[in-house]
Amino acid sequence: MTLPARIGIDIGGTFTDVALEHDGRSFTLKTLTTHGAPEQGVLSALLSVVERAGVKPEEVSTIIHGTTLATNALIERKGARTALVTTAGFRDVLEIRSEDRYEQYDLDIDLPTPLVPRHLRLTVNERIDASGTVRVPLESDALEGIARQLLEAEVEAVAIGLLHSYLNAEHERALADALTRLLPGVAITLSSEVAPEMREYERFSTAAANAYVQPLMSGYLDRLEKSLVREGFSCPLLLMLSSGGLTTVETARRFPVRLVESGPAGGVVFAVDIAQRHELDRVLSFDMGGTTAKLCLIDDGQPMTSRSFEVARVWRFRKGSGLPLRIPVIEMVEIGAGGGSLARVDELGRITIGPESAGSEPGPACYARGGTHPTVTDADVLLGRIEPDGFAGGRLPLERHASVEAMRRDVADPLGLDVARASLGVAEIVEETMASAARVHAIEHGHDVSGRTMIAFGGAAPLHALRMARKLGVNRVLVPARAGVGSAIGFLRAPVSYEIVRSGRVALDELDAVAVEELLSEGEHEARAVVRAVERDGELRVERRVYMRYAGQGHEIEVSPAAGGPGGLDAALLRGAFEKLYRRLYGRLVPDGRIECLTWSVRVTAPPPARETETPLPSIGNEAGSVGARTLVDPETGESVTVEEHARADLDERSSVAGPAVITEDETTIFIPRGFSARVAPDGAIDCRYEEVFA
Quick one: which of 170, 403, 414, 435 has the most CB atoms within 10 Å? Predict the structure, then answer.
C-alpha cells in the first residue's frame, strides 16, 4: 500500500527537525532554529525536505507541527500584555500561590513573578459557592468600568478566573460575552474552559498563561498557514499536544497552553513506537537536544501521564519553583542539560552545567556564530566524540580552536586542568546530572530505573547515553534509526487525540453513577467533536480516568473507571482498584480512610496513522560516511586513544562494534565507551549492550 507524503516538523531551542515519509522512503533534515521569524525557518526546512525527497508541496497530505514558542514566551516573558478579572477578594491568588516552599529553609527564596502584574488584576463582585450555587449575582453594572480600565491599560489579552467556576461557569461566560463586545480584538480566556478543575491558584495560573501566549501563537499560526498556502502546501496543518495527541489549528489557537511540551511529547511517542516494535515492557526514554534533556518512564507500552506541569522554573529546575499549568501532559523530568547548555566553574570551584543555554543564536563557541562560552557540545568536540568537519552532515562545520579557547578560559584555567581533562569533567557532570534526575524521577513515582532498556534519541543523546546508562545500572541502550530527529518522527506516529477534564468531588460511598455518567458523557461529546474535526472516519477509542484520594489528602492518584465493569460505574470495584494502586505506591492503606473522587477525565483517540511497513526504512538521500580512525579521550582512563569510526549507513545486521568506538550519521553520533558492544537490529536501531550481557 502506498501512502501519501506526511511531514513532521519540530522547532526546538537550538535545532528545527524535519522528517518526511512517503512511499516506503524517509527523508530527514536538521537545521538551526530561526528565533526571529520561526515561520520562515519552518517554511525553509519544509521546502528543503520536499525538494530532497522529490515531492511537490501539493502532494503532501499532512503536516504535523510541534513548537517551543509558547514555552519560550512564558520563560522569557515575551507574551502579550495580559489582565486577569477575578472574584472580589481573590486579586492576589497569583501572588499568594499555594504557600508551598520548594526550598524549605531558604529565607531569600525566589518565586516566579506572576504573568499578570497587580495593577492589571481587576475584581468583580460575584460569588458562586463550592456546590456551584450562585450566592452573589454578577455585578453587571461594573463591567463597562472594567472594560474601560482594560482599554486604558492597552491590554492584548484577558484571563477570566472566578471562584468555583469549574462547577458553574455562568458568571465567567457572562463576563466573556460583555468583554468580547466591549474589547474587540482582545483575546479572552476562561478558566472554566482551559482548566475546569478545583484549586483556584492552578486554575487561574493556567488561564493567565493561556491568555499570555494566545496572541503570539495565534499570530504565528496565521502567518504559517498563509505561508504554506502561498508555497503550494494545501494539506491540513495539525499541532502536537503535550499529552501526545494531535489537534487542529483552531483548537491550538484557543488553548495554546496545551502546546508547551509538544516537542518532548513527540519524542516520547517515538520511544513508545520503538518499545512496542522491540517488545520492551520497561523502558527509560532519554531525549537530549540542544537545550534540555528529557526523561520518561514507559511501562507496558504506555508512558506516565499527569494533569499538571510547571514552566519557567526559577531555581535550577526545582519542582515547585515554576508556574503551574493544569493540562494533560506526558509525565517527564526535564533538566537544563542539552548540547548547548553552558559550562562554567561556580564560586565553590565546581563545574556546573546549565540551565542557561547558548541555543542556536549565538550557539556553542564552536559554531562560530558569536558564542564565547563553552557548552556540552564544545566538550564533545574536544573529547573527539564530534568530528568538526562532519557535524550535521558537513552542512555546519565547527571550529575546534574556538572550543579550545572557551573551555580553557572558563573551565580549565580556573581549575588548573588541561583542556582535555576539563572537557571530560564537563561530560561527566552532565551525565551524572541526567542520571541523578532519572533516579529521583523514578523514585518519586514508585519505580526503579535499573534493569530497564534505555531508548536514546535527540541530537546529543547518543553521545552520552551509554555512559549515563552505566551510572544507572542500565545494561541495554537502543539508538533508533534517525534518532537525531526523533521528535519529528514521533509526530508522524501520534494519533489525533483530545482529553477533557472535569472536577466533580464526591465521596466514594455516596457515588451517584448517573450524575457521573452524565459528566463523562458531556466531556466525551466535547472531545469527540475535536477529534472528528480531523478524523471523520474510523472507530474512536474512549478512555476514562478518575483521580481519587483519602479525604484530607492534598493529592490524588489515577484510577480507571473501567474497573466499574460493563454495567457502569461500581463503587466497590473502584475502591478495590484505588486500594491496590495506593498500596503499590505507598506500601499501606489508611485504616478506615474515607475515599473521595475529585476529578474525572475522558480521552478520545482516533485510530493510529497507517504504516506502510512494520519497521521504518533507513534514511536515504544522505551521504554515507567512510570507515576510518579517530582520536578521542577515553573516559575510563582520561587518556587519548585511537578508535574505529563507523558510518551507520555502512553497517548491517552482521556488523558488531566493540567499544571504545564511534558510529556516525548526519544528525548525531553514537559514542560507544569501553565495555559496550553494538549490533544492528532488524529495524536499523543500534542495539548497545554492556558486554557482560552478551552470551
Answer: 403
